[in-house]
Amino acid sequence: SQTIHQWPATLVQPVGSPLSLECTVEGTSNPNLYWYRQAAGRGLQLLFYSVGIGQISSEVPQNLSASRPQDRQFILSSKKLLLSDSGFYLCAWKVRYLPESPGDTQYFGPGTRLTVL
Amino acid sequence: GQQLNQSPQSMFIQEGEDVSMNCTSSSIFNTWLWYKQDPGEGPVLLIALYKAGELTSNGRLTAQFGITRKDSFLNISASIPSDVGIYFCAGTANAGGTSYGKLTFGQGTILTVHP
Questions:
Q1: What does the alpha-carbon distance between residue A14 and residue A85 come to, in Å, rounded to a whole number?
Q2: Do B88 and A94 touch (CB under 8 A)?
Q3: pLDDT for B27-83, tens place per residue?
Q4: Which of A52, A64, A103, B28 satisfies CB 3.0 to 4.6 Å to B50 for a cystine?
Q5: A46 contacts chain B (CB < 8 A)
């Protein structure tokens, strides 16, 4: 079965410090990977998605960047955190499109709670 | 871009009551998904719908893909305290690989169940 991991679970960082959040998926190959941010427990905003190693698409301009150094690893980074970067960060994966498996079901990790002070 | 309007924003019900929530879109969606999120955790998939008119059940949960492709509803029957959480609808406007699976989410329905 497939599992998705995120770490750390919680993080408190000062303004201006760097950030690195990691997401890994097990039990599947060539997944699509996604980073979301959720503010105040409502609404998920898609930040980045990746359809393969080294392929990153950004959905919104921001202070964050993403990388995919390995097939099942997705990293969210920042060089200098802002107060507005606080939130709940979620990683998700989806099976690469297969004709016999229609639909775009995404499966989420447990999330990372980031507080920037 | 696409937007999903989810209602109601919150519900306060008594244990044993039935619950209904829905999502509407101004554009056609090809996939509708319903997720539940508990505090401090990631959303968990409840039901996935892939065809217009499709009605799918998962235990006490029932969801339907609207025939117009612009709406979906989720019903919970005989609610219990563990149903408490935030329920999200989500969907994709283009099927398969061309959309890269990007989901649009509703703003969520906060469900509170009083014992």
A1: 11
A2: no
A3: 899 889 999 999 999 999 999 998 999 999 999 999 999 999 999 999 999 999 999
A4: A103
A5: yes
Tokens of A2: 């497939």
Q: Extract the tokens encoding A36.
A: 């979301």
- pLDDT digit string, tens, across residues A11-66: 999 999 999 999 999 998 899 999 999 987 678 999 999 989 999 999 887 899 99
Does A109 reach chain B within 8 Å, measured CB to CB?
yes
- Report yes or no: B43 and B88 within 8 Å, Cβ to Cβ: yes
For residue B96, give the chain A residue with the closest CA: A97
Looking at beta carbons, which pairs linking A70-75 to residues 24 or more positions away fall under 8 Å?
A: A71/A29, A71/A30, A71/A31, A72/A24, A72/A25, A72/A26, A72/A28, A72/A29, A72/A31, A73/A22, A73/A23, A73/A24, A74/A22, A74/A23, A74/A24, A74/A33, A74/A35, A74/A50, A75/A20, A75/A21, A75/A22, A75/A23
